[in-house]
Amino acid sequence: MMFGNKKKHPCLTDTDQLPLIDIRSLTGVGSSTFLEKQKCKKQIIEASKQWGFFQVVNHGISNELLKKMNDEQMKLFRQPYEEKSSSNNFLSNTYRSGTPTPMNQFSWSEAFHIPLSDIRSGNPQNLNNNTLRSTIEKFAETLSELALKIAEVLAENVGSDAKGLAGYFAENCSEETCYLRLNRYPPCPISSDKVFGLMPHTDSDFLTILYQDQVGGLQLVKDNKWVTVKPNPQYLIINIGDLFQAWSNDIYKSVEHRVMINNKFERFSAAYFLCPSHDTVIRSKAGPPLYKKFSFGEFREQVQEDVRKLGRKVGLPRFRL
Fold this sequence. Notes:
Keywords: Iron, Metal-binding, Oxidoreductase. Residues 176-276 form the Fe2OG dioxygenase domain. Belongs to the iron/ascorbate-dependent oxidoreductase family. GO terms for molecular function: metal ion binding; oxidoreductase activity. This protein is of the alpha+beta class and 321 residues long. The protein has a single domain (20-319), classed as B-lactam Antibiotic, Isopenicillin N Synthase, Chain (Jelly Rolls), CATH 2.60.120.330. It contains ten helices and 16 strands. The chain has an eight-stranded mixed sheet. β10 (218-222) and β11 form a beta hairpin. α3 packs across α6. It is globular, with a radius of gyration of 19 Å. The model has no long low-confidence stretch (mean pLDDT 86).
């Protein structure tokens, strides 16, 4: 959900670097020992507790695929508006542009919001770009596998029945609700504190994996200050979503983040969102529960209702006991 809240945070320089974790021991890139794997897991858990965000390298996704994804994305977004939004397009009904709110904020961006089920089903049949589809399909497949691996690591640290929880995500996160979001942030000629590339928000999912190009703009909140993330196209960025915070009983943090506008350069990114089916019940798995149990469908409905009525997302505080 792309709507911010009313909290103000002072800006911080990018000297505080986002944790960078080598996850080759999880992805099988090269050889690794048991101790290296345990160290990797510990780093993921600590970053998720302290930051709610981290970067990964040796993630198992080739530079060739990342570059191809970026190239195909650039070609897709540079089509005329009529073609991008056409019902005859392979990505029909997935195109979005701009997000105004009653708070007079605006997201200077355009995006394709693509459920995994649409990618893997091969529908609609009137596909004109086989290269685009095959690239998106491979990209989504590899990110989906990585998301489940990261989720299982985080699950191992939650509750006494951790081993039984490891398969929870593979069982409940469906192709109908997990999705890719392809983003383009055009150069913005407007200078205003009400205009963002993407407005401040938290993610309404378990976790998100982001691939971004070399143009910066992503910021996140750390210790009540905005931290700028230095871009590196060889890294992937992973952040905890609202559902994981509730599911872990606040062990992990879903952190507010945003994308700033750029008046000179366009920016491209692609994000994978690990979401459960709408009827999946989210209940705290560690300690006395801090949140009442709720289904993902109920959570989404509450978020949408708050956006309609208040112009902003409230999110987890609505479900806190």
